[in-house]
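>> received
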Amino acid sequence: MNAGLANIPAMSPTLPPLLYASTDRSADILYFGRFDVPDPFIAFAARGKKIAVLSALEFGRAKKTSGFDRVLPLEPWLKKAAAVWPSTKPRAGAAEVILLLARAYRLRGFAVPEDFPAGLIDRLRRHGLRIKVTAGSFFPEREIKTPAEAAAIREGNRCSALGIAAAQDMLHASKIRGNRLWYRGAILTSERLKVAIETACLEAGAVSLNTIAAGGDQACDPHERGHGPLRPHELIIVDVFPRVTATGYHGDMTRAFLKGRASDAQRALVTAVRDAQLAALGCIRTGANGRDVHAACVDVFTCRGYKTKCTPRGSVGFFHGTGHGLGLDVHEPPRLSATVDYKLKTGSVVTVEPGLYFPGLGGCRIEDVVQVASAKPRMLSSYHYNWELS
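>> returned
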C-alpha cells in the first residue's frame, strides 16, 4: 500500500501546500497559479517552486500563460500510477498521482485547505501520506492586496458601476401607471432590471451572477435577489458583484433607487444609511478594529431612532455586518462586524455597506469598496448617491 512513498526522508516542519480543485470553485488555486482551469487539477509546492499537473487540454496554455514554475503532463503520471496500483478500484487517479509526486519530490506530507476533497484525504492517508488540514485562510497573504490586485478590484467596481448605471437608466426611463412601472410597453420587473445589469457587466468584461434588484419589502431581506413587478414610490436595492473575466477579481457595489415620490420617512432612512457609511469610512485606517467600524454605524442608527429587533417574521433594522474582504472571492477576510475582534491591516480591501430594513417602509443599503491605509482609506469604487428618480 505504501509503494508510492518508499525511501522518502523526514519532512520539513512546514508542510508544502497541495490543492485539487477547479479555479471556478477555489479562489486559492487561482491565486496560487494565476491560471483559470474549469476542471479540478493538482497543484502543489516543492523546493520553493509552484507545480501544476494538467491534462493535454490545458498543458500547452499553462506553459505559456500560467504563474506555475513547472507544468507536468497528467497523462504519463496516470499511466505510471495505473502500473504501480493495477488493482485499485476505482482505478488509479488523482490520489495515486499525488502519491507518486510525493515520492518523486521526496515529500512525506502536504498541507491542504479546509475544502480539499474528503475522499482524496482519506485515500492519501491510507497510503501513508501525512495530510494536515489548515484551519482558516490557506493563503493568509491573500488579505493584503498588491497595487495590481487593487487595480483589478477597481476594474471590477467599474463594471459594477456600469451595471448600476444600466439599472438607473431603465428606472429613469420607466413610466408610472397605477402601482406598476412600465418600460418600453411592458411591466418592469426585477428580472428585466437584472438582465440589463448583467448585460452591461458582460459587455464590460465581467460576469455578474446572483445580482440583486429587489424592491419594496423584498429588499428587506438583504440577500433576496428580487422577483416580479417593481413598483413606483418604493425603494429598490441594486447590488452588483461581478467577476472580471480577465483577472478573476470581483467588484461589489450597492445603491438604492426610488422611481416616483419619496416620503419623508424614506428620505430619512436613506440619509441615515449614507451618514452611517460616512461614519464607518471615517474610522477605517491601519490598526482600527473592525468592531469599532461597525459600532460607528450602529451609533448613527441608534441616534436616529432605528432599532434593530428580531421579530417572528424576521429581523428589522441593521442586522448584518458593516463589511467584508473582497478579492478573488466576493466574501473573504477580514470582516467588519460586532462579532469579530480584528485590527485592520494596511493593504486590506473591504466593503463598507451599512443598511436599514423595515417592511412597510423599505430597505436601503449603500456599499462601496476601500483599501485600508495609514490615514484615510483609498476608494476603489465610484458612483453617485443620487437616488430619487423622477
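>> The CA atoms of residues 208 and 242 lie 4 Å apart.
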